[in-house]
Design brief:
The chain is α+β, with helices and mostly antiparallel strands. 48% of the residues lie in helices and 22% in strands. It has a five-stranded antiparallel sheet with strand order 2-1-5-4-3, sandwiched between helices. Strands 7-9-10-12-11 form a five-stranded mixed sheet, covered by helices on one side. The protein has a two-stranded antiparallel ribbon with strand order 6-8. The N and C termini lie far apart (110 Å). The structure holds adenosine-5'-diphosphate.
Length: 399
């Protein structure tokens, strides 16, 4: 074999090896492609079988993926959604509101959890979606978008609205006869219909007190329905928090003395005037202070503190009372919830006060929280922004 033939043979051998390597790579690619297609099919099956609308957004908030469910929920073909943002499907007012919440989450790269938003379907219907999503980051940790799912909760929302409207109507209707009972009992007690003996007085006082509790309950139910229907108004005006607190303390003076409670006020000197709705802010003081009085045994101590803590005013009400059992603390702001320990003490209450004031505080951009230990005491804290409450048009005040 001459040198030339040997060179050709070696080259052929090299080419053969390269061909085999290429074939192997192609085979691997085909396998990966199969795996990818199987994965894609799996995802499509999940997306098709899910009642939720699954989506993916790029870093600028445009849809890069929309599952087919969108056509049943909003009447759009997925292709019509790609390139749009979620806010393009909402009214301008709703988009502004939801965008603010989304922007805070996106800036912190936090998951989006249970954000309710009203959308306009292709045929003009209003559809309420509950959005959940997680941030998507690349290998270097840069945010490249969000992925998530939207649940259609329009029917539940409509049922909730109907329930709140019913409670509102029923409470409103109940108020008139209850007020009449109150007036007439007062008149009977005052002897307007003739002298009454001590026994009759005792029974009438029971009727009067029971009726008063019923009026309080009906008012609280009316407030809850107004909060849930979003129909309550907020009318801020410049005010001194300490003056509102003082007028509530005056109302509670009798109970404070009766229970021999040691009441302390700690107001920071020269507190600023703040723009708040006086009625709503009084409700915050009323609830926190009357709870502290109700849930602290005789001889206990209550301390009300008001101070400035930029950018907020901090109100705190500390008591040395029954406290809130650890295992029930997560329910304390839920509607109608009352902890076992205070119910066992035969205290009066509806379990609506904290739910109502939490809604007031949060709708004002503030925060409410507490620390408590059973049989040691409880401290409730409220932050109200120094910038004050936002005016909110509504048809009804809270009462
Ligand atoms: P209510 O006082 O009418 O029951 P709230 O909504 O104001 O309703 O309070 C809900 C529950 O929270 C109370 O029933 C009680 O179990 C608990 N709670 C509130 N404040 C205190 C407090 N200062 N000390 C102990 N428990 C409290």
């Amino acid at each position: 074999m001459d040198e030339h033939t040997e060179e050709i043979r070696k080259q052929k051998e090299r080419l053969e090896k390269q061909r085999t390597a290429i074939l192997n790579v192609l085979e691997d690619i085909a396998k990966e492609k199969d795996k990818f297609q199987a994965l894609e099919k799996k995802f499509e099956d999940i997306a098709r079988s899910s009642s939720d609308f699954l989506w993916e957004l790029d870093e600028d908030g445009h849809y890069t993926y929309a599952s087919g469910r969108i056509s049943e929920i909003l009447g759009y073909h997925p292709g019509e959604i790609i390139g749009k943002t979620p806010f393009d499907l909402m009214s301008e007012e709703e988009a502004d509101k939801v965008k603010k919440v989304f922007d805070i989450k996106v800036a912190k790269r936090e998951p989006i959890i249970d954000i309710k938003n009203w959308n306009l379907a292709k045929d003009g219907r209003k559809v309420c979606l509950l959005t959940n999503g997680v941030p998507v980051v690349d290998k270097r940790g840069n945010l490249i978008g969000y992925r998530g799912a939207d649940k259609d909760i329009t029917v539940q929302e409509e049922i909730d609205k109907a329930k709140s409207e019913f409670v509102s109507l029923a409470s409103h209707q109940l108020r008139t006869p209850l007020t009449a009972i109150s007036w007439y009992t007062e008149m009977l007690l005052a002897g307007d219909a003739g002298a009454i003996n001590d026994n009759q007085k005792k029974y009438l006082s029971e009727v009067y007190d029971g009726n008063k509790r019923m009026i309080d309950l009906v008012n609280s139910l009316l407030n809850v329905s107004r909060i849930e229907l979003g129909t309550f108004m907020v009318e801020p005006e410049p005010a001194h928090l300490e003056e509102m607190a003082d007028s509530v303390i005056k109302e509670l003076d009798h109970s404070i003395k009766e229970r021999k409670l040691d009441f302390h006020k700690e107001y920071e000197a020269s507190l600023p005037i703040i723009n708040v709705d006086i009625k709503l802010t009084r409700m915050i003081f009323q609830n926190l202070l009357s709870n502290a009085v109700k849930y602290t045994p005789e001889g206990g101590k209550i301390t009300l503190t008001i101070k400035k803590q930029d950018p907020n005013m901090l109100i705190s009400v500390a008591d040395t009372g029954y406290g809130i059992p650890k295992n029930q603390q997560s329910h304390i702001f839920s509607k109608l919830f009352r902890a076992d320990n205070v119910m066992a003490k035969d205290t009066e209450g509806t379990g609506l006060g904290l739910y109502i004031i939490k809604s007031i505080v949060e709708s004002s951009g503030g925060k409410i929280w507490f620390e408590s230990e059973e049989n040691k005491g409880t401290t409730f804290f409220v932050n109200l922004p120094l910038s004050g409450m936002q005016k909110k048009k509504g048809s009804k005040p809270l009462s």
